[in-house]
Design a protein that fits this description.
By secondary structure, the chain is an alpha/beta fold. A hairpin with a 2-residue loop joins strand 1 and strand 2. A 7-stranded mixed β-sheet has the order 3-2-1-4-5-6-7, sandwiched between helices. It contains 5 helices and 7 strands; from the N terminus they run βββαβαβαααββ.
């Protein structure tokens, strides 16, 4: 059963999060997105790394992140299989890089036990679980500054993306402790989610 899965093998686990900005309209209210910040940290390590548009060259951001990706036995984040990983692949495509390789993933939204009546956002799950690490709040003016790549906005984006990573590491550990996460699943760049991980 899903709630009975526990992490038993010490894989190098990479926790990641992205921030992005709208780039152009492509129909109705739909817009394309550009990555403005990547945050990553190895689970069990004290320090992570961020890459920031407006500070780092966008091609170098992706190349350097790819080095972390390739070293990971598993990657984890909140809604990463539906949002972050496709967005990273779009960046790889735009800059002429190979797509991300197939990878074992644990998504704390998509692999969460089934329930209704409660929000599954990271912010609300963090409050529900009474986590120590808070969600870094951004109002409209802060987002506008971040999306315009103003120096103070870039710093806000860095704090936001790394704050989400720190909160998520704590959140995933608590969800595992409570038996609320199913086993990791293999994600592939073709968009298919493979079979679950069986230790």
């Amino acid at each position: 059963m899903m709630a009975e899965w526990r992490e038993v093998h010490p894989l190098p686990i990479l926790d990641l999060d992205l921030e992005c900005r709208p780039l152009n309209w492509y129909g109705g209210d739909w817009v394309t997105r550009e990555i403005t910040a990547i945050g990553a940290q190895w689970v069990g390590k004290r320090r992570g790394r961020s890459w920031l548009l407006g500070v780092d060259d966008p091609l170098e951001m992706l190349v350097q992140f790819r080095e972390w990706w390739d070293k990971a036995g598993m990657v984890t984040g909140h809604y990463i299989r539906a949002f972050d990983l496709p967005l990273l692949n779009a960046g790889m495509l735009e800059y002429g890089l190979q797509p991300l390789s197939k990878k074992l993933t644990q998504d704390t939204k998509l692999d969460l036990i089934k329930f209704s009546g409660l929000s599954k956002s990271q912010e609300n799950l963090g409050a529900l679980l009474q986590l120590h690490h808070p969600k870094i709040q951004m109002d409209q003016q802060k987002w506008r500054s971040a999306n315009r790549l103003q120096p103070e906005g870039i710093e806000l984006a860095r704090r936001r993306v790394m704050g989400d990573v720190h909160q998520h590491i704590e959140m995933r550990a608590e969800l595992l402790r409570r038996g609320m996460l199913g086993p990791p699943k293999v994600w592939s760049p073709e968009g298919r989610v493979g079979s679950t991980y069986v230790p």
